[in-house]
Design goal:
Nuclear Transport Factor 2, Chain: A, alpha+beta, five-stranded mixed sheet, 2 domains, 37% helix
Amino acid sequence: MPANPTAAELLATVEASPAAVGAHDKAAWVGLFAENGSVEDPVGSRPHLGRAAIERFYDTFIAPNDIAFDVAHDVVCGATVFRDLTIATTMSTGVTLHVPMHLRYDLEEVDGALKIRALRAHWELAGMIGQLLGSGAQGLLAGAKLGPQLLGNQGVGGAIGFLSGLRGVGKPGKQAAGRLLDALGRADTADAQSALVSVPRLEWATDGAMSLADFATRVKGLRWSKAIAAGRTVTATVETRQGRGIAELDFAEGLRIASARIFVGAN
């Protein structure tokens, strides 16, 4: 494996994840992660840290279900692959849930092989629960089965940690994120500053932190769609002059945005 993996090599590692999920191959899926890897699914819930915890995550949320990935677009940015997709999960009772999602994979090289250091799944837990409860008897039965699975594999603390994904900035956060992205698209730094903390961290692709003026210049003309609020982070699909990407906005306390990064591929 070269010291600087190509976009194709990064994507191949990421593609191995849904392939293992589709084949119900636990060993292959867990083996994609670094020994100290983590899964935060959804973002805002308690992360699963290390091999044993990732195995329990698989047993709880992947093994009982059939999961299909409908990927609209991939963004390779440095050692990160950000996927814009919808996941269809068919549970044991036959009910299928369609969940819009942004999946962030941070990769690293371990002993000459690419491994997933962190997987962060941006999706809205409240929306998924609403779908489940609105799916009639099959959905209610699936929910009744999920509870014991969750407690059996994760324990009380793990169940509480999973449900902590219900907390976050929610709809107000998505509205605040939209106002910031609209202002940046117009290169209106005054309006943009009103949505930010006094000293925000602003990043474009792999270029590192920059001033608001420089960031607004890079982002000018941006258009956005598909905002997702998970925990205290909002992600959105964006169209930029450099191509399609994903914005990731992290909130401080309240509804001020502490950091914003636009993930786009290299030209």
